[in-house]
Amino acid sequence: MNYKKLIICLIGFCTIFYSCEDWLDREPLDVVSEVSFFKSPGDFTVYVNGFHTTTGDWTTSESLRDNGTDVQTSTNSMPTRIAGQSTINDGPGYSYGNVRSANYVIKKAREFEGDFNSIKQAVGEAHYFRAWYYYVLLRNFGDVQWIDDVLTMESEELYGTRDPRNLIADKIIADLDTAAMYCMAEKGNGYSRLPKWLALLVQSRIALYEGTWEKYHAGTVFGAANPNPDKYLTKAAAAAKEIIDSDLYQVWSTGDTANDFYYNFNWRDFTNHPEIMRWSKMDIALEIHSHRYLYIQAFMNSFGPPKDLVDQFLCKDGLPISMSPLYMGDNTIEDETMNRDPRFDQFIFNQDDIWQIYEDGTYHYYDWVFTDYIFRNVLNSNGTGYQFRKRYYEYYKYHDSQYEDTPVPHYRYAEALLNYAEAKAELGTITQQDLDISINELRDRVGMPHLMLSNVPDDPKAVYPELSPLINEVRRERVVELAGEGFRWDDLMRWAAMSKLVGKRPKGAKAAQFLWPHNLPVDENGYLDMYQNIYPNGYQFNLNRDYLWPIPESQLTLNPNLGQNPGWGN
Amino acid sequence: MQGYAADPLLQQTVTGIVTDSQTGETMPGVNIIVKGTTQGVITNPEGKFSISVSDMSASLVFSFVGYKTLEVPIEGKSVVNVKLEAELTGLEEVVVVGYGTQKRINLTGAVDVITGEELANRPAAQTSQLLQGQEPSMLITMGDRGSEPGAKQKLQIRGVGSLSGNTSPLVLVDGVEMDMNLIDPATIENVTILKDASASAVYGSRAAFGVVLITTKTGKKNQAMRVTYSNIISLKEPTYVLQMEDSYTYAIALNQGRINAGLTPIMPDEMVQRIKGYIDGTYTTEYNPDDPPYNQWRGRWMANANYNWSDMYYSNSYEQKHNLNLEGGTENTQYYTSVGFQDQPGMYTWGNDKYKRFNVLGNVKTKVTDWATFDFSAKYVKALRDYPNGGVWGDRSGYWMHYLILFPNTHRYNLNGTLANPIEVAMRNGGRMETDNNTAQFSLGTVLEPLKGWTTTVRYNYMLSSGVSTNDLKPVMVENANGSFTNIGASQSGIIETLQMGHYEVFTAYTKYEKTIAGHYFSVMAGYEQDYFHNRKLTGTGYGLITAEVNAISSALGTKEVDDLIYHWATQGIFGRINYNFNEKYLLELSARYDGSSRFEKGHRWGFFPSASVGYNISREDFWEPIQPYVQRLKLRVSYGTLGNQNLVKAAERQNISQAWIDVENPNAESYLYLNEVPVYPLLERIIDGVRPSYATIPGLKPENLTWETILTSNVGLEAGFLNDRLSLEFDMYSRTTKDMMGPSIQLPSVLGTGAPASNNAKLRTTGFELTLGWSDRINELGYNVRFGLGDYQTEILEYVNETGSLGSWYVGRKVGDLWGLTTDRIIQEDGEEMPDQSYYFSKWGPGDIVYKDLNDDEKIDPGLNTLDDHGDLSVIANTSPRYQLSLIGGVTWKSLDFSMFWQGIGKRTFFPYYNAECWWGTTTSYANTFYAQDSYALDYWRPADETNFLGPNTDAFLPKPYTSNERVKNVQTQTRFLENAAYFRLKNLQLGYTLPQRIADRTPIHSLRVFFTGENLLTLSPLPKAFEPESIIASDSNFRIYPLARLYSLGLNITF
Fold first, then answer.
1. What is the DSSP code string of B497-517?
2. Most buried of A499, B133, B362, B842 (most Cβ within 10 A)?
3. What pLDDT, in 10s, does the model give residues B983-995?
4. What is the interface pTM, i.e. ipTM, of the complex?
């Protein structure tokens, strides 16, 4: 055997392998590096698509946000915050992750070399979402740090102090101005790219939030330094007015005052709905389905509107129940709904409301279940006896508890009207014409008499006796129209109105009308009193502390310059 | 081979039989030569030989590997029967080490060997299960799938090596990285475990945390063909399945938790009465027909049956394994082939989960010239898995969760006779997850020895792994008692198909020269190796199948989706080793590897990892002679070396090359830590303009200058044999420091908006020891042996960036496993007892609640700032690392009978149950997650002295007063009272065998025959309450949800022709 041959073979063999000098250069095969992304306008759209799932208005949050307030109670427990049982570690996430994500694309947009018009919509949406993320921080923590860059580990901001809340509010409003400028001026189909009008609606909401917060918390530990409520209220009114003036949206009505309010929420497709400004489309074929709990009676049952809310509905003559001769008393739910604002009847179930329509066309009325359904099991009873009907959908075939494909409305024009009326009323510049283009539009849908500036009822049982009858009526209109849509917490917080609740227990309907034997406690006047045993002292919201959540302790340890919120130590 | 004869006329024939002096078995393949000539023969398969001899006064030399060479004078006899004596000591034993073999006596590193016999004849499917407990340094623990068919174990040698990276050892099968569980245990010749840096240094960056070398069997020289068939048939029974208390007990305890929380009882009186009636036989239906449960989970609150659900889900099954092999060889060519089959059904009562594996192995080696040998090896494995996967809860572990939340009072059947239990329906009728993995590996090598002592090995390995998985999505309709139906399966019918194809190639070439000159032995080895891995995965989904019978995307009418995943990496290294010894007395070894990895940025790719070790066989010194009768051998070893770790993040694909398609979370992020990528995902969870568009997210912060973790290991070892080497001892002490360790990300203020990237900023050290003591002896026909192993280690953080000293993170001085918690004082018995201010945890405290100890005497209980400087009343209350790995192996042979047993355990292991683990606490914060298990603590909760329910008062309770609300969190803070010891000692295997005596076998065509009985997991000793299995509660999720441990009773047969 010839060694040489063999050795040559061997060397040759080795060389084949070793000749790949760059054996270790193994670039990624299926991912996009930062360097090559954001080169085409489509990349920006792809990036901001991710924001569309981050705002939490998707499934339960809207329906449940009202929980534990005076408009929606849960039989099982109240949120720890309103029960006064929050501890320092209970707060929501003190997270800037979404803010960073928005700042990143805003920065990339500044560096973009192509035609700005091609990425305008995406940039507008980025600003919209950043505003929203900051609104969440503002609501939870008040003062937070304003960051508009993509921070690095070396950034000084990591150890900076918190910026005052009004600076944050200004920045949010500016972001929404930018969003309104860049986003499309058409309505769109309501579930896709964001229109300018949504930015304006959210702007009116947030400006109203900050304006009323600064007004009603003024002089307290929660107040803003150098408050200027009017600035924000003016902005809130202007933004809402711009939507109204656009003439793109209307309060939906067919003239059927007894049903329109209920059916307003029950479309299978809101694309051409004149009032719904934003909604989520579902499609089981695309694996997008909601667990839209409010449509599922088993779940819905554990929440009930309490008596406090029910009593807010005016009588048909436009007068509160304390004043109106039409009021029939509250021995039964039928009595209570009689002669009242038709929104009441459409908001809760009456025995003659349709409960379930089956595939074969047969149906049941609510009386089928009324006597026992809501009390058949303690877990299942709503505790107040009033059964939510608003946003419910009676077509049983759509109610698969796992795969509900009923679309979810999120934002509607009615809010713009109510924001407008409230901002103007708070500014003190409201006119009859302002009321006519806002609140009275909503009243027309249900056939209620107009609210007349010249004749505002002075309710002896007003919730806010220290405020003007007009403000009381504007606030009443807001809760009557929007209850169950997730606004109540924010409203109570910005109005500094928690003092109205502390020490009170939410009550239900007259217990005697329910035949089914139930375990729920009843108070001395015969009303259901669900919290009698669990929370004998009622709401215990800590007025000196709970309007803001604490900064998590771990964050204070990492950056002591943050400082803690009032009432939480330090 | 007939010898050469000068003059046939003078030839005489000598015949005889060679037998083993101990067993009396005949020995085939024994070499016999006439002393002083080249004339020789070997014994035939019956151990007989016949040799022509010209000089009847010459001697015959008998030699056989592993036996003492024997020289017998012929002395004119024509029949020479001899008995060969086995080498008593393992000193001449040759051990497989990195890129070569070494005599055991000359080893200077910490190396251990497990022979194939110790693994054979056990029913367990996975090699890793068989290795558990065999070596005190190696911790093999149950994986998070428990004992599900085909589930994997977790492997660790000498404890935690890195906090973030993969610290599993490198597993090489015949020199190639491979999943050890793809090997049929019956084909394993031996397993070598390289524990310290010096032993594994030639593997460099791949071997940071030890190496497991598995060598498969090869044919023996000069052996006639043999066929061996073996099988094991097992009865498998689930153990430690949680048993539920009856439904009446449930109702009372559930209601009590609610009442304590100030809530209305969950089960109304009316229902409790029905439950009682049902148990007494006075109420006959499983629910009230006038008020039927109206959705699929509703039975929990409305029905009144009494089932022990958790027990019903599991039942016995049978498994089997078979192996057939064929081996043999001539002087120049040897072969070994094997075919194996394993059928391992699971224990689900409904749903038929199963695992099947087919193995084929062929090893052929041939010497083509006297200086060149070629070998070829092929392995093929097919593994099939099939699991029910049918519920809305996602993957099949959802079943384990749902087992627990269906209360015993839930009805099984509707009154019309249809099945109502949603889990049962989903298991029976739901979709399934099926996988079919195929791995083929080919290895072609040559060993050249052109000069005596100079060998060069060149080897190329190619492994192809492919996998197919199908996950059929099926809507599963459950009929509710009120006649309505609910879908608890997929929203629509569909199929997800995944194809994966990976290939892995390794090229290795090394050359070695050795020479002995006057007692000085030298050897030098140098080599080169490179490997490359490439993986591609393709996933397609189709919704809306035309018919559930045809599971194919092409028969889908609805949306179709497709996605892929491609990644690759490569390494390259040169290595070398120098060995020197003088008379096998003074030993020295130096080795090093220079390694590069594609996972690092250019400029940070290469690392150099040297090591050195020395050994001293003191018993070979002349002065040892007087001690020799008592201590036959004594060796001291010391080693020190460095290794690198490139597997910085959970690089699971390194361990699972052949199953890489089992999702690595984000292989690109792991392979390209140094790159900033914009992650782009295909389907937004939202519809925009009628479609689900793709979306992207922000890249994480990029780590700077990422490079190897470096592992420094020092090891001191001692080996000794006493009393005629009947008593053997091996002891190793080590310290392993990981520096430039990828620390878990440091904490930075939230305002950064993202987590800090990892960097090479931390350091930790593991110190520990291993001890093996063995005794082996024979008294006449009774042979017995016992081996005891003990290993322990602890890991401490030496460097870590944690400026605030936060207890939520690592800090210098923290031992891995340190648990901070409160110290429990007592349970309050009376209202108004004196106690510290505990309002930090909750506003209200009363009888039945816990009082904590005020360690810092500030009269209030709190965790301070949760930092090292201010930790309030917290202290380190325990360390949860497993301590003291124990094993005990014993065997007895007597005549044809053999008996062995194998115990394995953990000496100490503290754990604190997750605060909401329903199996442990019974009542949790949510009524829906409540589980009252028999033989657990669940009902031993505090009840006042005047308790009226049937559970009665229990003021001396172990658990505090239960609250079915967040209030209970105050009582279940991490604290001393509820620390548990999950130590165990388990009879892993017991075996009783009978071997057909040789004299009977000789009269049949059978060469040997053994039948045996074996039992696995027969007995477990543990301080835990009887409901809990110590291994699986650690391996399970925090709620103890896991597939239960199986006990096996097996019969087996080994027969060779």
1. EEEEEEEEEEEEEEEEEEEEE
2. B133
3. 999 998 899 999 8
4. 0.91
